[in-house]
Write a sequence for this structure.
């Protein structure tokens, strides 16, 4: 998720439970299949597929699983056509804008589930276009700001990175979505360890959410990200560090 990288970082460091790995692989395979279907089965000519495959590799997804997902998207299989991409927009507690990207074979089921998650956690599902204007699609690479400085990122700038932002001890390298792989390769060639790289909807501005609203908001994001059909969640909030640590404990 983008918009609250500190929360994501803590969850990443805690590590995903082994019991969730099967669910993660299912989500990754679905994203690969759709990217392959929509842009072709060759990662070299399909940036979205290249990114999806890289995320699967980082999660230690077996090569055979990755190839099967690519093949399904390329027409080898019967379930790829049934998957559609549906975007949901809404507001969480404290007025935070939230975009939810889903890949689903049952739009009605997913809509009901996403609406329930918003309602249960004191949020509101909005109409199409209600919050999308707050975000812009960007390539985002996250680097540990304690291990690396901006001087280590010169190669990334030469490869197409447009901005470097400090965020909670991390450095977020921003680029055009189509330049994501080139910037990734430049960082790797310079020995920079990348914590994550993805195409995300970056917020143009953020809102600070505190107190009980912040706790409900983080629970809402967690509930959405846990759903089988949810591919990504984007938001424009920041919350106090102590609340993040309280809920991540």
């Amino acid at each position: 998720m983008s918009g609250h990288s500190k929360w994501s970082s803590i969850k990443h460091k805690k590590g995903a439970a082994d019991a969730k790995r099967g669910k993660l692989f299912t989500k990754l395979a679905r994203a690969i299949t759709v990217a392959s279907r929509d842009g072709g089965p060759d990662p070299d000519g399909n940036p979205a597929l290249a990114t999806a495959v890289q995320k699967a590799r980082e999660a230690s997804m077996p090569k055979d699983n990755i190839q099967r997902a690519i093949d399904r998207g390329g027409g080898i299989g019967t379930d790829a056509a049934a998957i559609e991409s549906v975007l949901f927009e809404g507001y969480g507690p404290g007025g935070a804008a939230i975009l939810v990207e889903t890949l689903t074979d049952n739009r009605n089921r997913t809509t009901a589930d996403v609406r329930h998650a918003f309602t249960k956690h004191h949020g509101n599902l909005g109409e199409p276009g209600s919050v999308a204007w707050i975000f812009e699609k960007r390539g985002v690479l996250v680097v540990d700001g304690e291990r690396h400085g901006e001087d280590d990122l010169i190669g990334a700038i030469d490869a197409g990175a447009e901005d470097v932002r400090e965020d909670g001890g991390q450095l977020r390298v921003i680029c055009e979505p189509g330049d994501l792989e080139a910037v990734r390769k430049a960082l790797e060639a310079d020995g920079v360890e990348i914590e994550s790289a993805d195409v995300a909807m970056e917020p143009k501005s953020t809102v600070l959410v505190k107190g009980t609203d912040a706790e409900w908001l983080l629970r809402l994001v967690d509930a959405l990200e846990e759903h089988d059909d949810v591919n990504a969640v984007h938001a424009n909030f920041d919350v106090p560090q102590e609340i993040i640590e309280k809920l991540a404990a």
